[in-house]
Structure formats: structure tokens, C-alpha cells
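Annex B. Sample input.
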Amino acid sequence: MESRNPVFRKVGEQARMGYTPSPAELQGMYDQPAYAPPAERTMTIDDVVVKGFASLGVLAAAGTVAWVLNLGMGIALISVLVALGIGLYLSFSGKSSGPLTLTYSAFYGIAVGTISHLYNSLYNGIVFQAILGTALAFAAMLAVYSLRIIRVTPKFTRYVVAAGFALLALMVVNLVVGMFNDTGIGIRENGPLGIAFSVIAILVGCFFLMLDFDMIERGVQAGVPAKFAWACAFALTSTLVWIYLEILRLLAILQGND
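Annex B, continued. Sample output.
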């Protein structure tokens, strides 16, 4: 009975032809892999650009729909909670998922569109100013990173992440205290403290952009799989929306003080 093993089959064919392989040749046949899977394509900057535009495009489309329909803050709150759940899963699981990233962008876009409509109804033109400010912040931090004016070191990363958690903790405390009074601890109110908090939040968001750029550059250099571009798109989308909302809030405070 003919063997199904490709090595034995090859040896048998050679034996029938009057040729007997040497022990070294026979060992070489055994050492050869039976199947060599195709190499997985590695991530490039173009992959990140395409995935980033896709994520931001979905967010902008969902935001536009929410703006036009004026869905209300109830829908915005539900969308934020869903986006937060997806975002936490993507962040802590370490997985790169295109469908989940785009779903996250869609729900986040609904919330951003609703919030933007509310602010623009109070201060006409403020949304365009916030979008322009966000674009300028992105361009400025990309230039700072590319020119190595500020280098992303482990120490820098620790400080930025610590600052981010500190801001998050302050916002949670403000929310809890706000349940018992009208102003919380004052970091979201019109006034010097509110302005200072928004400025710091914008700066920390800009520094997080540098961490995102560093993650992308290191990923390309390390030859990570192309699907990792979705994780980079998720990070960039989250950071840019953070900066946008803080700029929107700061502009509202400044115009409210006029």
C-alpha cells in the first residue's frame, strides 16, 4: 500500500527509478517542513492612515446624523456608555478589531454630534472653531514628534499616563460631588479653575497624541501584523475626540465669560 507521507512517497518513487538516497539526503527530506504558511503582511503607515480615516469618517457620519436629527442627551448618554464599554474592551484586551473599532466610532459619533449640536445652539460657530483647533493641535504635535522636539521616553510616557489618570479621577470626583451640589469641585464651571482644567486637559490630550505616534512608529519598525493598524486608528480617534471636546468646552467657557 502506498504511503501518504510525502517523504516516503518521494523515496518510493526514487527507489523505483533505481536511486537510493543517502542517509544525509534522507535526513534532509525529513527536516523539510511539510507546509510553509505564507508570511503575514506587516503594518505600514499607509495602513494606519487608511484605517484612521475610516474610523474618523464613520464618527463624522454618525455625528452628522445625530446633529441633523437632534437626538437629545438621553441618546447621547446611552451612546457614550456603549462606546465606553467597547473602548475599555479594546484597550484592556489588546485586540485589534476593525468591526469593533468602527462600531465604537459610530456610537461615539452619535454622542459627539449631539453634544456639538447643543453647544452650537448656544454659541453659533463654536463647533467649527473646535474642529479647526483640533486639526491645528494634531498638526502641531505631529511636527513636534517628527522633529523630535520632544522625545517619547519611558519617563515621559509614565508622566503622561499618570496625568491622564489624574484628570480622570478629578472628573469622577467632580461628578460624585456634583450629586450633592450644583458645581461639583468647580473644574467644569465658568471661571479660572474651569479654564485651567480645560487647558491642562487639552495639553495632556496633545501629549497622548505623541504616545499614539510613537506606538505607530514602533509598530511599523517592529513589523507587527497589518491588523494592528485598527488599534492605532482606535487610539488616534479616541485622543482626537478628547482634544475636540475639551477645546469645545474651553471655547464655551471663554465665550460665556464675555
